[in-house]
Amino acid sequence: MYPYTNYYDAINRQPHKMITDLEKAIDGEYSAINCYDKLAQLASNEKERKQILEIRKDEVKHYQQFVQLYSRLTGRQPQPKITEDCPNVYKKGLEFALQDEQHTVDFYLEIADEATDPVIRRIFRRAAADEQNHAVWFLYFFSKM
Question: Is the separation of the CB atoms in 15 and 73 below 8 Å?
């Protein structure tokens, strides 16, 4: 009798786009986790290394939240993949991370604006705020070089 196959379809008329966006977000976080591990190893001092590892910890949290959402919405686990190679040179890595974080802020705010579920909206707005904070740190490190 109901035209939707699950609860998510019933509350959101764009389930395919949300799932596609979640897959992209999961891949982005998975890539960032790996990249920031590399950047931490390349860091020019201990203070920067520790801060990059703190940023990485935020990315792990985002990744876990997005995987949980994805699993709840689809009933399956995602298959994350690294979508971009992280530079092997610290300065280039900082610039790469800074630009990636800035693009991610816009992407996450877009997802939040399109979401009808308040939990999804809240998770992506919080992640966007974290990503903006990360961008500021990477800009600070980059500007000191």
Answer: yes
